[in-house]
Amino acid sequence: MTIDLSHMPTTLDIFHLILAILALSFFLLFLKKQNQSLKKQNQNQQTPNESTPLRNDESSNVSITAEKPAPAQLTQASPDAALQLLTLLQQDARFIDFVKEDLSAYSDADIGAAARVVHEGSQKTLNNYFTLESVRTEDEETRITLPAGFNAAEVRLTGNVVGEAPFTGTLIHKGWKVSETKLPKIAEGHDTSIVAMAEVEL
Fold it and tell me: Is 50 exceeded by the pLDDT of residue 61?
């Protein structure tokens, strides 16, 4: 199935198209990484702390113990959530059709027009199934100070990073975080790898 680019309004340029595709790709990677982190956290919580006696002198009743940290375990994330999101993006935005289309024969104006369809559909998917919030509440391009112990998972330092916190710099991007996910439930036995069924007209 393809998108007829000749019947769409010409508004967006190739820069915004590439930006939209990159943003969606990073979002998919974020979901996969978040799923891995949650599974890893659950496994660590279920692993009991172990104490090993090191010494027991006859003249003393004190037993010295040391806690062994739970070894980091890498688990393979289930692809179901990512595949489900691809399915929704295909339904609402024809995302896969657009990305898989050979755009070399189209003008930038035609591509920009198709990007509007992808943008509107993708926005609908995000609004329906995710609640997104900014990581930082300050205005972009303002100076902020990160105190010692700031959450390195929420803020990435760029530029000339030397020394230790507190760090003062310019906020380039507020960042995004998902505060709520409302993906539809998957029926037992459903094949999530089919993100778009083939269509046959009779």
Answer: no
